[in-house]
Amino acid sequence: MSRMNNGRAVASLMFGRVIYAINWYNFAAIFTLVARDMNLNVSGLGIVVGSFYLGVALFQIPGGILAAKVGPRLTVVYGTLLASTAALLTSLASDFLQISILRFLVGAGMAFVFAPGVILVAKYFRERAEGFSVGLFNSAFYVGGALGIFGWAVLADAWGWRESLAISGGVGILTAFLVMLLVPRDTIREDFAMETLEIRRIVASRWLLLLGIGLLAVNGFSSLISSFMVFYLRSSQHANAALAGAVGALALLGSLVSSPLFGTLHDRIRSPSRLIFLSGLLGIGGLELASIPTVPAAMFASLIVGFTSGGALTVGFSAARELAHGEYET
């Protein structure tokens, strides 16, 4: 706690990050129940997932611009309210189109939350601890992801998928008000105006482009394991659901451990390219290990890929926020 300047603000942002991740992952946990209730096939569920990620992708830059104009605190509040309200309304959806649109809005709201949240958390940590703060913020995401996948699968099975979404959406709305109450107001320059040339400089940055490509590769490793490991173990290795789920969860555990560790390493050695390159090499090794058709190999592969992806993303996010300062930081 000695690294923090404002413990209450950080706690509210971390709690919000956990609920954010629950609303991110819990829909995947209830796929089977939704498909049965809505008479959807795999293609339909894929479209729902695609609409969510489309919302996340399209609104990242608009979210950053909004944060520059009104401040990261209000942007986090607006984004949390949008994502959580859409998650809550999904529990009332009556058809495939409504679910697809609402999941798009959940993704859009989450796009407004992430980058401003990183900026706020880093702001409330002392100098030279910013990387650790981003790692801690990412760790909260992985905790929420684990709760969303496993906790909501159990909750939906016991109470129903609609009720489970209503709970997570409702709690998400409460976190928006918590951030409003506990995070200090942003200081916005009255004479501030967006400069198109500055935005172009940031978006066209060669360093930012290369950083994005590097993280794209790491995300590829992570997505392969997180999306297909459980299916692979169930279909090819004939593992039971509990074992397959536990092996898949090792990726989240690895990311949970590596995020603050790599954040601290970034603070000390300030060499993001080397850390991301090392993570990439280890991730390739994890994928190679996954090709060995045994459950123990899958366990180590899941842990290694999760560890490397969590570390690389933390370093990448920390490095990206250092590209610009002041109003354009988000």
Task: Write a brief structural summary.
This protein is an all-alpha fold and 330 residues long.
How does this structure look, described?
The protein is an all-alpha fold and 330 residues long. It is 82% helix and 0% strand. The protein contains 13 helices and no strands. The model has no long low-confidence stretch (mean pLDDT 83).
| Distance between the first and last residues' Cα | 25 Å
The helix fraction, in percent, is over 70%
The sequence of SSEs as H and E is HHHHHHHHHHHHH
What class, by secondary structure content? mainly alpha
Overall mean pLDDT:
83
Q: Profile the largest sheet.
A: none
Q: State the low-pLDDT regions, or none.
A: none
The CATH topology of the largest domain comes to: Growth Hormone, Chain: A
Fraction of residues in β-strands: under 5%
Gyration radius, to the nearest Å? Answer: 20 Å
**CATH H-level name of the largest domain... which superfamily?**
MFS general substrate transporter like domains
Number of strands: 0
Shape: globular
What is the CATH C level class of the largest domain, in words?
Answer: Mainly Alpha
CATH architecture of the largest domain: Up-down Bundle
Integer tally of domains: 2
Number of helices: 13
List the helices and strands and how they pair.
Elements lengths: L6 H23 L1 H8 L3 H17 L1 H11 L1 H19 L5 H28 L6 H30 L1 H22 L13 H8 L2 H30 L5 H29 L2 H19 L4 H27 L9
Helix pairs in contact: 1-6, 1-7, 1-8, 3-6, 4-5, 4-6, 5-6, 5-8, 6-7, 7-8, 7-11, 7-13, 10-11, 10-12, 10-13, 11-13, 12-13
